[in-house]
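User: My advisor, Dr. K., asked me to get a structural model of this assembly before our group meeting. I'm new to this, so sorry if the format is off. These are the inputs:
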Amino acid sequence: MTLTAKPPAAPPAGGDDVPPAASAPPRRRRGIRTWVRGGGLSTLAFLAPMLIVFTVFSWSPIVQSMVMSLQETNLLDPPTWVGLDNFAHVLNDPLLGTAVVNTLYFALLALLFGFPLPILVAVLMSEVRRAKGFYSALAYLPVVVPPVVAVLLWKVFYDASPTGLFNTILSWVGIPPQPWLQSSATAMPSLVLEATWAAAGGAIIIYLAALLSVPPELYDAAEVDGATIWQKVWNVTLPQLRGILFIMLILQVIATAQVFLEPYLFTGGGPNNATVTILLLIYRYAFQNSLGGDYGEATALSVMLAIVLALLSWLYFKLTERWSTS
Amino acid sequence: MKSPRTVAIAGLAAFAMVGALAACSAGGGSDSGKTELRVATFPPGADEAAYTAFAEQEKQFEKAHPEIDIIGVEYEWEGPTFAVQLAGGSLPDVFTVPFTDSKTLLENGQLMDVTDEVAELGYTDKFNPILLDAVKDGDRIYGFPRQAYAMGLHYNRTLFEEAGLDPDNPPATWDEIREAAKTISEKTGKAGFMEMTQNNTGGWQLVAATAARGGSIQEDHGDGTYTSTIANDATKAHLQYLHDLRWEDNSLGSNFLLDWGTINQEFAAGNIGMYSSGSDVYTALVRDFSLDPDDYGLTVVPVEDGGGTLGGGDIAVVSPTADDETKAAAVTWIDWFYMQKLLDEDAAVLDAKTLAESDQAVGTPVLPVLDRETYEESLTWIEPYINVPRDQMTPFIEGVWDQTPMGEPKGKTQEIYALLDTVVQAVLTEENADIDALLEQADADAQALLDE
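Assistant: The format is fine. Below is the predicted structure of the whole assembly, which you can bring to the meeting.
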């Protein structure tokens, strides 16, 4: 409480001042020869592997898919340019609306259940005095299980017959068997339940680390003031974590907008299109109904999704910039 | 930083990286003057004996055709794999495609034209015209129909016995299927009957049932235009039938999201009493899904009101990217591996013997790719090697000749199947699903696709 923020802030401020004054003007005058003599070649050589890998596996596919979204191709003959036809076609697909709504529904459910749960667990775990490592390992375990294996496992748990695992457990407390994946109403929540289980571990570890950075003096002070546990969480922990909470929120929104694995493996988009998501629709365009004949439409929808996600990411950078400086 | 050694090392590192990348894309050329031919073998997970049998056949072929070097490639027909392999240039030179998908590939222009080769071998007029129609665009031919099936009703004899039903006297009408399904699920707790619903197979099976009930989902005007007739009485009747089995009898079990692979799995595991699929699925059930042959029974899907049995099968095709030399070798292989055993006694016996020695299914009931006489004669050639329980398939073997084979709808086949998946799923998962409204909607959506 007696510390001020000034001393740590001083060096970066001074450091910021020096480089522009010293280095900016000479850099402009430097020719190729000075660049070579200054070790430019070896810099480039060391950079080359990364540049090549990124170009081949990342940047060129990105550019290619943008080009492809304006073309029609059967992967054999030279592609023909079709302008914005692919986009028009995708926007006119009656299933697009369903896919967008389903994806938003998944994101919303994941936000309601998947977002607060890891925070709660992390706070509880940070209160545990003994066997902390054991609980951390336990919480992180689902992340270690390969996602496909996890989904296949949960498919067995979700067996909708009265003898299914979850339904047997429910019957012990007198709840009738649930249809889980076999009904439009319960399919999506079932996917979210598994996704939350699978992803919570990673978030818990991050929150646990963040909780360590909360100065213990704040808790001590709150305790002296007679605060209950709930008040401590609400008035100390959460405000101290707001930066990380916000980052995790944005990251989760971006991740859930791209949900594919769960609907693809659990339900194939069914029943009755209740779990068709945007990415699953892209997959269907490209592979399922057209057998590689509709790459144009698939990439068109991908580009549209990428634009929306880029906007979200931009928002994320803007806002985190403010958080980190505040 | 300026030291030449540093630069050299860095350069070397970069060079090695590029070299490694280049090595990734190295393609296989032919050495020793032989034509290398990459041919499809079995899906991943096939048992080892299947590979033993194939290795033997590979040896026999290479002895007869020393100029060709056969390379067996693990292969399973899947849309995504096909597209990726086609784009990446790693498609086998010879592979097989189900009829259901060959129409889509034809529409996309992704099959190799083999009209001249088929004519040269003298097969053009020998193929069953209904089957040949599936690989034709105008008068050009894009593949060799190599195996065909009619839709059959597969049933689990053990579950029939447990339910007190006679496995030698399977149901012969849709009503009898309903009765048997109800009995099975009441007595054994398993699904009495089930249909595929997922990944376009729901639409495929609904179309098959529609054909059996005397209806059709599409009118082909023969000039590349089609009229959707999805909201027809036969389709409606079948959906109502499924609805009643699900919601009145509760005899369809509890998993309503099944496709070709998963329904085979459930059936082989003894969880389904009856289901409809291609009559040749026995081979896969035993080879890939570990079905106990004693459990198996096969009969015809009941037809009524002038209906027929939806036929299908697969075609052997040449990769659209193959060069002339490879194409010629590919046609030689297709003729030897797929066609000769249908025509020639020696080839048929050799094939059956090789398969039987490795415990692979011989004698699974199929529809003749050529004509019925040749097919039935070929069965007498391979009689000693037949190892599938044909006596458990008698109702099908005897009944199928009375049924008219029907072809699949040709316009936008897979996309319309996808639309119908949703309809079937809705009926099975929503008790109050409005069948008329669902069909009207699907009909409108299908017509929009057909008008594109």
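One thing worth pointing out at the meeting: The domain at 150-311+395-450 of chain B is CATH 3.40.190.10 (D-Maltodextrin-Binding Protein; domain 2).

User: Perfect, thanks a lot.
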